[in-house]
Amino acid sequence: MNNWKLEIDPYLNDISKPQRYLGGELNEIVKDWTAVRCRFLFAFPDVYEVGMSHLGLQILYEAVNKTPDLLMERTFAPWTDMEAVMRQHEIPLFGLESGREVQAYDCIGFTLQHEMSYTNILNMLDLGGVPLLAEERSNEDVLVIAGGPCASNAEPLAPFLDAILLGEGELLLPRLLQVIGAHKALRQGRMERSILLGELAALPGIYVPSFYQPIYDGSGDLTAILPLEMPGTTQKAPAMIKKARLRDLDEACFPAAPLVPYIEVVHDRMMLEILRGCTRGCRFCQAGMIYRPVRERSCETLLRQASELKKNTGHNEISLTSLSSSDHTCIKELVHTLMENFEGEQISVSLPSLRANHFSVELANEIQKVRKTGFTFAPEAGTQRLRDVINKGVTEEALLQTIESAVQAGWSQVKLYFMVGLPTETMDDVDGIAALCEKVVRRGTQIMKENRRYGSLKVTASVSNFVPKAHTPFQWGGQDTQEIFKAKHAYLRQRIRDRRISYHYHDPYTSMLEAVFARGDRRLANVLIKAFQNGCRFDSWTEQFKGTAWKEAFEASEMDMQALAAKNFELSAVLPWSHLDYGIDPDFLKREYALAMKETITPDCRYHGCSRCGVCGPESGLVLAGKAEDQ
Amino acid sequence: MKIRLRYEKTEVGRYLSHLDLARTMERTLRRAEVPLAFSEGFNPHPRMSFASALAVGITGENEFLDVELRRRVNREKLEQAIREAMPPALELKQLEEIPMNGKSLSALINLAAYRFLVSAEKIHEDDVRAGIDRTLAAAELWRQPKVKPGKKIIPAKEVRGLIRQITVSRENDWLKIEMTLVMNNTAQLRPQEVWAMLAEYGGFEAAAVSRVCRTGLFIEEDGKAYMPMGGDHRDAQRDIDAG
User: Fold this and answer.
1) What value of ipTM does the predicted structure carry?
2) What are the φ/ψ torsions at residue A53 (nearest 5 degrees)?
3) Is residue A438 in some structural domain?
């Protein structure tokens, strides 16, 4: 066996951040290769610093490695300088723990966090010496799987993947690996690829794309996704694949001793997941749909986990993560007790994802007693009309009052997130973004004057481009064209004159690519191969993004990316993800779409009764730690 | 209470920057539940000070760190807790209490010892030895900094006085080079650049160096050098040639 970490050693002095490729961190688990039945390589399609900030990696590392028969190691996308070294010296992609090459493992699994990471996946397979297309792989090749949020429509990647995990990985992955292990144990370590895929497809939440045949009509529209007969059986693959989900987060696998990197990573802190799912029901938000229902961890569990994390990592910050942290029913008690426990040790508590309300300011005030850094809110849209369309239950007055309390409490910087291109948006709504920012500045500055504080409130408006996503009420409608996005950004740029407001926006070109792949089908796989061959890597890194290479990849595949991004689906159309069941009733999405068009909101089911999204079943799937009271 | 740590930066941690090391050390001390004393101000930092930053790519066998605690704790228990909390990149070798108001490590240390390997494939041991003798016999040695485009030109510096001792020995296919260099606030040489100078003046090929290690940091007094630890500094004592 080769330890490729030794082979890269002579070149490490000439590449950036060599520590990325060496492993050896605190809490690393290096299991005996021969003592397990199935060896899994977790592959994060971005650099080490991004991947090591991902809580999912830490959860899966624990869930797999705590199982006696299984082993999990890690690999990340090598940065461009390292890739050059690897290609020049014929060093394959390898796992950080044992230094073994990709093909030595039984299974490699990619996490699909966003669409712009897809070319890195192809590059990593290529560096691992794995045939890109699943159909070209032999029994000797590693099994290639994927999971994560973009698995909810990974059709553009389908030809590259042997199996896709729908739903919660800590539940699915160990089960899947056990099946691989048992399969190989029966065959003296050999794999019968097609038989194994049949065994995997029988598991809940496992989608084997090669068992499904998409049918297109003469105009190229999808008309059906046919389940095929599974090899070695007379049975057809299930017509619908249902996502797997945990009942109770308190019982879920918790990485009490996560890996602690040596080098600075994006989020250098303890991550305590306090709840999963969100029922606020923002109509553009995919996470809010696919992670339902809401399951909270109890305060008691969270406090115990926090103290374990502290003891095992030594971090000086703890982040209470979730889709909407101020929504946890015991958040106040939790924050208060954590602050008390950690006082004197200079450990700070941070709360991402706060809703714009007075309660959030109270919470933030509790955790930032000394240093008041910026406050961030996401009104998403500039006018009340459009906020009602997207079901963002924040009123202008509530936002202004929140700003008022934040400034009263000592803050002097606010960051506001908006989107342009939301369904039904007019130029009045775009103008509303500028108008709202101005109101915020005026109200905040007035409060500062009243309190005899020097200066004025500074507002940063960060404006991104709406990308329609699968499994949301906005999945049918096309995205704004490049021309329209550019016009909207140009309007805002000249409209915002107030020097107290700084305006940032996202490049519409990458947003268009995201839209193409977010709602795309298998025919896009060709484009991905061409883009990869044209040198596309790290497409989410602005300085690495190669617009021309992408353009040429689409042209060579005779596909029109602008038309694909702007494509409108009929409400009755078969969608590329129609066979993937995330528990959300398609009729609920249609109802929500109709309500959006009528500018009518749907209140949060936690406080105002069931909205019949379909996820709960006969009994409520909600798991709350305390009493539900809308703040 | 103030403590001094003697520790090793291992192969695993070779590519850690000084900042990475400081962060890693802070986390280690936190895991060991050391009652760290913090600086005042908006952004409190633990009060700890390193003897000397170690360059990226170099290991260190005997590195030193002073840490201030906010209350007294049992030394043995502390040593055990810190030893257990160390990640693979670090290893605790010794811990002792030091006076609260002693001189800082960076003010005390004035010698550093290094060791590295070069391949014996292309150069002969005797040639290297002769070249080194010739070079060190000179009264003056001038370091000519590399001229980088667009950067300010640094004047050449006479550095003969900064080199104390260099030994060469054979280890299988490798030559083991050991050198003791003067280290103070105004001047410090990197072992790689000394090697390049020796090759240039001594007329042998500057073969690539590997496994560079700082083997120790010393206080030199009256011709004797010892490590900045009270307990076993007699063992660590070594003779330094006047050079």
Assistant:
1) 0.91
2) -95, 5
3) yes
Q: Do A24 and B85 touch (CB under 8 A)?
A: no
A262·B28 Cβ contact <8 A:
no
Copy the structure tokens of residue A297: 């961890």
Contact between A212 and A67 under an 8 Å Cβ cutoff? The reply is no
Q: Domain containing A424: what range?
A: 374-508
Helix (H) or strand (E) holding A364: helix A358-367
DSSP assignment string, A249-310 = GGGS---SS--B-SS--SS-SEEEE-EE---S--TT-HHHHHT-S-EEPPHHHHHHHHHHHH
Q: Which amino acid is at A520?
A: G
Q: Helices B75-85 & B18-31, crossing angle to 10 degrees?
A: 120
Domains defined along chain B, listed by start: 2-105 (3.30.70.580), 111-239 (3.30.70)
Taking contacts as CB-CB distances below 8 angstroms, the residues of chain A near B38 are: 346
Output the furthest CA–CA distance in chain A (Å, rounded).
Answer: 79
CATH code (residue A184): 3.40.50.2300
pLDDT at B229: 87
Of A346, A368, A369, A370, which to mutate for an interface test with B (greatest number of B Cβ within 10 Å)? A346
Say yes or no: A61 and A201 in one domain: yes
Q: Which two tokens stand for residue B86?
A: 């160390």
Cα B174 from Cα B123, distance rounded (Å): 10
B25 at interface of A, judged by CB pairs closer than 8 A:
no
Q: How far is CA A527 from the centre of its chain?
A: 23
Number of structural domains (chain A) is 2
pTM to 2 decimal places: 0.94
Residue A17 lies in a domain: yes
A241-242 and A580-581: which strand pairing? parallel
Nearest-neighbour CA in chain B from A371: distance (Å): 6
Point out the domain boundary residue: A459, A491, A508.
A508
Q: Residue A340: CB partners within 8 Å, gap ≥ 6?
A: none
Looking at residue A369, its pLDDT comes to: 64
Residues of B in contact with A26 (CB under 8 A): 27, 87-88
Decide which of A475, A508, A541 is a domain's last residue.
A508
Could you read off the pLDDT of B108-162 as tens digits, one per residue?
999 999 999 999 988 889 999 999 999 888 888 888 777 777 777 777 888 888 9
Query: Choosing among B18, B23, B47, B59, which should be mutated to test the A contact, i.e. which has the most A CBs within 10 A?
Result: B23
Query: Is A212 inside any structural domain?
Result: yes
Burial of A69 (0-12, 13-18, 19+ CB in 10 A): middle
Close Cβ partners of A209 (under 8 Å, ≥ 6 residues apart) = A134, A154, A155, A158, A159, A161, A163, A164, A522
Residue A112 lies in a domain: yes
Residue A350 sits at φ, ψ, to 5 deg, of -125, 150
* Radius of gyration of chain B measured on its C-alpha atoms: 20
Mean of all residue pLDDT scores within chain B: 89
CATH number of the domain that A391 lies in?
A: 3.30.750.200
Residue A496: predicted pLDDT: 94
What's the rounded mean pLDDT across residues A43-68?
98
